[in-house]
Specification:
alpha+beta; 16% helix; 33% strand; CarboxyPept-like_regulatory; signal; Carboxypeptidase-like regulatory domain-containing protein
Length: 437
Amino acid sequence: MMNILRLFLVSCFCLGTLGAARAQGKLSGVVQDSVTHEPLAFSSVFLANTTLGVTTNELGRFEFAKVPTGTYSVVGSYVGYRLAKQVVTITSTPQQITLVLAATGNQLAEVVVESTPNDPKDYQKFMDQFLGRTAFSDQSHIVNPKDVIVNYDDSTKDLTARSRKFVQIDNDALGYHVKYYGLRFSSNDEDGSLSFYGEPVFEEMTPRDERQQRQWAANRATAYNGSFNHFLKSVYDNRVAAEGFLTQHVRVVVNNRFELTDSLRRTLLTQRPNGQFSKAEKDSLTKWNRAAPVTATVYPEALPIDSIRRVSADGQHVYLRFTGELQVAHFGEAPDPKYGRPMSPLGATAKPYPTLRQVSRLRLQGHEAEIQSNGSLINPFDVSAGEYWGFEKIGEFLPLNYVPPIAAAPAPAAAPVRSTTPTRSATPTRSAASTRP
């Protein structure tokens, strides 16, 4: 049913409420050594997941003169020191903070021992899962591969990766240099889970000419349109249908007899290695092969907005909420040509939905997840995504202060007549890893 991508790549989407028309505030501060409290001159300070970054002066001071109001993760970086991070909420009142960095303990005079080179197959697998396999991912590459340490544990089937300092990704499709600090990546072959997290900062590339600038703008709009970030913003703004989205309830039922059924199937296959089965045994195998640990039933009617959106009594907080799983379709845009699999069915209706669509699945880790006004989650651990959104990775990664062009989004054709016939799926649901960006 759903291969889960934990939306930690949203530390990626985690913090920051940005927007061109939002009020602004001022943020300033100083970066210091944690032991001596001496200022660290020329260190880097940035607001994670944005294009906003500065360098401290000779006194270790920095200033962001105009920051859109909202909540940010402020990160300090300096050679020979660990990252420092502080979460701040920007208002119209100026704020000052102190970032304290701890030395890593390595002195310049020490001998640096090179780690064992990555296994090429493991590194390629990491690349495929981290950058993705989309057309935009094909135009992205890691500039400093030697700074990435990849390990594969054959006993647990875990693939992990981390960076010595940062991983720099150049995305030639979207026109960004991305420095991904503190990368922690994990995937598992058996349960299909994948997560990565860190503190990325974006820098605009310089275009060769106006044509390339226009192409980047078009590609960024394509990456945003129909994305998870776009969907969350449409929920926040109460514009789900107007932005071309359809949401459907998915009822998930655990098959408590699956382990017994699967054990019987494997035992019979072991007993008949030559494949010589009786008619009764063939019938049993056919039945057992259809069994799945979980079944999912998609109900074709569109969920009303109040079924997936809750606003606090004071009107200051908006939450995504639903039961079971949520199937989300976005109409009007074809899937990436490299997706390579059919979209999940939307169910039987009197009037069919448009065929040009992208279909994804969501699962809440709790009862609800709070959304900020730019379409980011307060806590990215709250949601897991699968299917099409699980397919999109770093190749479609945009900064939180990206502002999409104002255009009418394609909405579904006239809402289909409700049908009482649900669509069933026996594909197993995978649980996400408990780690994250």
